[in-house]
Amino acid sequence: MGHIDPRKLPAMPELMIAGPGELHEEDLDALGHQVIAHYGDLWTQLMGETVEAMGKLVGAHAPYIVPGTGTTCLDMGLFNLFEAGDKVVVANTGFFGMRLSAMARAHKLDVIEVPVPVGEPIDADRMGAAAAGADGILTVHVETATGVRHPIEDIARAARDAGAVYLVDGIASVGGETVDLERMGIHGLVTGSQKGLDAPPGLGVLALSELGHARVDARSERPESWYLDVKTWDWYRTEWAAWHPHPVTMPTNLVVALASSMRRMLEAGMDAWVARRAALAERLRLGLADLGLAAIPTRGFEANLVVAAWADEPAALQKHLADKEGIMISGGLDPTMGKAIRVGLMGRTATDYMVERVIDGLGRALRDLPGHR
């Protein structure tokens, strides 16, 4: 392959992967606006409105929108809510549950893993029992590897009863599931811009409830990071509020595109928005089941943004869809790698039309496979 000209990329399959999603046209237009300054009256107002909109989406005051990824803000959450030597209970729900354990160990936390059977929800009572005497609980909301939505409100109650701080990885849930930090009693929530928020990759979000901020204030010393210390961000929000309310140069085009996407979501109403994604996901699961592709999640715990189903030859199905239908879907991740397909319902392609195309295309792919005719 020769050099790739970034100004003349080849035609690509339409994305129905487990993130990122394709941009809506109005958000793409916003992303393509000429770069604007990351300080001054216009920017300060835009950034403030974007932070306020994010707060409405997750039920928390003034979340931190940070250049980076969701994983960047998982580091940020771990740095600020916990200190080296703290004991945390982590639910091993699959690939991203295991990543939480790995990140916690990198932060020198004492990790207790609670295994969760593939496809099943986290048992909140079991987490609470394991958290007796522990400092915190870490879980994903939606495990991207299995398409399971976990009962974070129940886990938050268990954490409260155990006196533990609760940090949630909501990277594959926010924008597609109902999340309300203050009402649910969650200390911290992390997400990224590229999945349920229907925006480009490149921004992470950390939201803290009042309980979360209280935990940060109670630390024995500041985190061993300047960039990811929320007190650094708080100082700039206060001292430089009038013109530059953040400690770094913000990627202005990414923020503009995110603001455009969130405006559309909030104008639709989050209850209606989430219900629409849930209906799409259910339609897709029913279509896959009709093809003999059984859903991985236990009934009642299926995610809205990622539909995961067992498949004997996932790579062949992916190749057929990409080559013959012009659609890209995802394969499995541990513990479903080589055993499953995953379809994302994010961004511009989260439509009835695209769901039907995926179902029809998989039907043709299965008929082409030996033993499926």
Question: How would you briefly describe this protein structure?
Answer:
Helix 2 packs across helix 10. The two termini are 36 Å apart. This protein is globular.
Give an account of the 3D structure.
- The structure is a single chain.
- Strand 13 and strand 14 form a beta hairpin.
- The protein is an alpha/beta fold and 373 residues long.
- It has 13 helices and 14 strands.
- Helix 1 (25-31) packs antiparallel against helix 10 (252-268), helix 2 (41-58) crosses helix 10 (252-268) and helix 5 (124-130) packs parallel to helix 6.
- The model has no long low-confidence stretch (mean pLDDT 97).
- Helices cover 42% and strands 15% of the residues.
Percent range for helical residues?
Answer: 40-55%
Number of helices: 13
**Can you give the mean pLDDT?**
97
Oligomeric state, counting identical vs distinct chains: single chain
Main beta sheet, described? 7 strands, mixed
Radius of gyration: 21 Å
Are there runs of 5+ residues with pLDDT below 50, and where? none
Provide the succession of SSEs. Answer: EHHEHEHEHEEEHEHEEHHHHEHEEEH
Strand order of the largest sheet: 2-10-9-8-5-3-4
N/C terminus separation: 36 Å
**Morphology:** globular
